[in-house]
Structures are given as structure tokens and as C-alpha cells.
Specification:
17% helix; alpha+beta; five-stranded antiparallel β-sheet
């Protein structure tokens, strides 16, 4: 059983520079074809400051933390027994190339189902830009198979 005393635990924040090349690569990987994700002029013509981050890109920013999936070590989880359950994003602003984004992750909840055969860790990550503005909040569930 995972240690529920870690509910509320906040991990060390990390900061990432949002690069045009990474945004273009991500857009291509998800099959995006809109020129705003590839050309600065198209992005500016559409009203963006620079090339915008495609939807769900913040997950990639979170993965750039110095420690890969820090909850694994904290909760003594075997990576071979985890599944990505679900994830939602709330957008409060836009992330664009050239931004500096600080991610702050925390454990919001933990619970089990099927008599403890499946345990769920609910994580929340906030993404704040260089101006101190909250631009995205992500909530995801990690499923741990016992």
C-alpha cells in the first residue's frame, strides 16, 4: 500500500525555456498542420506573441524536470507497475516560444480501488510564466498495479 501521508507533498519546482524547435517537433509528432505551430509570421498574424505551444505540450515541459518522475522514488513505486490513468489541462494563458515556464508539482490525493489491487496517485502541476502568471494547471492520475 502506498504511503498516504505524502498527500499534499510538493516537489521542487523546475524551470524550462520554451524553444521553437521543440514546439515544432511536438506539433509534427501529434500530426498538427496549422502553420501557427511552425512559422513565426503565421503565429503573429493569428495574434500570438510567437509560435504557440500545442495543446498538451505542458506535459512535455513537466517531463524536463531534473529527476524523472520524482514521485516514483518518493512513493517507492516500481515503474513497471504504473499506468498513466488520465490527464486534464486548464488553460489560463498561452505558452509561446521564448517563454520561461516554472513547473510546480504536488500530490493532491491517493486512493485505491478493487480492494487495493489498483492504487491511484492524483498529481497536480502548475505552469507559471516568466511574469509570474499561472498559464496552465494540469491534473493527472497515475495508476499503480499491486
Amino acid at each position: 500500500m502506498l504511503d498516504r501521508s505524502f498527500i499534499g507533498h510538493t516537489f521542487e519546482p523546475h524551470t524550462v525555456e520554451v524553444e521553437k524547435g521543440k514546439l515544432r517537433f511536438f506539433a509534427k509528432a501529434i500530426g498538427e498542420t496549422d502553420p501557427i505551430y511552425f512559422e513565426e509570421s503565421a503565429a503573429r498574424d493569428a495574434g500570438y506573441r510567437n509560435i504557440p505551444a500545442p495543446p498538451s505540450y505542458p506535459f512535455s515541459i513537466d517531463l524536463e524536470a531534473p529527476e524523472f518522475l520524482p514521485f516514483l522514488q518518493l512513493l517507492d513505486m516500481d515503474i513497471g507497475r504504473i499506468l498513466h490513468g488520465d490527464q486534464t489541462f486548464e488553460y489560463f494563458g498561452q505558452i509561446c516560444a521564448g517563454d520561461t515556464i516554472t513547473c510546480q508539482a504536488s500530490i493532491k490525493d491517493m486512493f485505491d480501488k478493487k480492494g487495493g489491487a489498483l492504487e491511484f496517485v492524483v498529481m497536480e502541476v502548475t505552469f507559471t510564466n516568466q511574469d509570474g502568471e499561472l498559464v496552465v494547471r494540469s491534473t493527472q492520475s497515475i495508476v499503480y498495479r499491486n
